[in-house]
Amino acid sequence: MKNIVKKGKFFLLLFIATSAFGQSIKRLNDPSIVAQHKRMTFESWGDWRPYPKYFLGIQTNFAYATVWGMWAPSINREYKNGEDIRPLKPNGEQNLRLAQLKLQEEEAKKIKASSDTIYKRSVQDFAHWTSATVDADPLWLLYYKPMLKPITEFPNTPQNFMEWRLKDQQTYETLNTTGTLKRWQEELDLIKEKYAMSRSMDMPRGKRFIMYHETLIKWRAFVQELKKYNDRTALLLDYKNILKNHLSTALPNQWTPASDKQIVHSTMQQYKHRF
C-alpha cells in the first residue's frame, strides 16, 4: 500500500513539472527577425524593422535608433543603405554558386566521357600494339601481306643462279666474281631483318605500317636492281660470245701476231715517200 502511494506521488510531481515547463515555452514571433529572414532569402530587400517614430521631429523609438539610427553601429547603417546582397536573388551569390556547381557537373561529365573515350581508344590501340595480334589487322590482310609475301619466299642465303633468279650459271659466276652478289646479300639481310622486326616487335600500329612501307620500298628497289644487273650481264655475255665467234672465223688459222720491230719497219716503209 505504501509503495502504491509513493508511486502515485512521484507521477503526480512529474505531471505538475511537465505542465509547468510546458506552459513556460512560448512561440517567438519577432517582426524584425522575420524581416531579416526575408532579406536573407529571395523574397524582398527592405522592411527595415523596427520602424522609426518621431515626435516633433525627434526620434523617439529607442530600438530603431540603436539598430538603424544614429546610435547604431556603422556596419548596420552601411548594410541598410548598401546594395541588395540577398544570396538567393536571381543573381545572388548562392544562386551563382549553384549555377557554377551545375556547370562543374556538366564539365565533369564531359571530362568523364573524354576519359572513357581515351580509355577505349587505348584498349583498341593496345590490340594493335602487341605483336600477337598483327595477323588480324585488316590493312595487313588486304594489302601488305600479299605485297610482302615475296620477301618470305626469297631464300635467306641464295647459293645458285636459280635461287638468285638469274638467267644462267655464267651470269651468276660473273656477278659473284665482281662482288655484286656479296653486296646484294647484305642488302637482302637488311630487308629481311627490317621485315622480321616489323612483325615481331611491340609498337604503335602507325609505326608498324611505316616499317611495312619502308620494307616494301626497299624490296622493290632490290628486285629492280637485281633485274637490271641480270639483264645487263646477260647482254654483255651474249655480245662477248658473238664477238668471240666472229673473231674466230675472221682470222686465218696460221695467223701469228707481228713483233714490235716488224710493225715499226712496216709503218716506215709505208710512209717513207710522204714526208
Which characteristics define this entry?
275 residues; mainly alpha; 3 domains; two-stranded antiparallel ribbon; 2 strands
What does this structure look like?
- This protein is mostly helical.
- The protein folds into three domains: 62 residues, no CATH class; 40 residues; 119 residues, no CATH class.
- It has ten helices and two strands; from the N terminus they run H-H-E-E-H-H-H-H-H-H-H-H.
- The chain has a two-stranded antiparallel sheet with strand order 1-2.
- The longest helix is centred in the last third of the chain and has 46 residues.
- The protein is rod-shaped, with a radius of gyration of 55 Å.
- The relative contact order is 0.04.
- The model has no long low-confidence stretch (mean pLDDT 80).
What is the CA-atom radius of gyration, in angstroms? 55 Å
User: Level of helix content?
Assistant: 55-70%
Mean pLDDT over the residues: 80
Strand order of the largest sheet: 1-2
Assembly level: single chain
Determine the N-to-C terminus distance: 181 Å
Number of DSSP helical runs: 10
The biggest sheet, with number of strands, parallel, antiparallel or mixed sense and barrel status, is: 2 strands, antiparallel
Q: How large a portion of the residues is in β-strands, by DSSP E?
A: under 5%
Shape: rod-shaped
Write the H/E string, N to C. Answer: HHEEHHHHHHHH
Could you give the count of β-strands? 2
**Helix/strand/pairing class, anyone?**
mainly alpha
Low-confidence stretches: none
Number of domains: 3
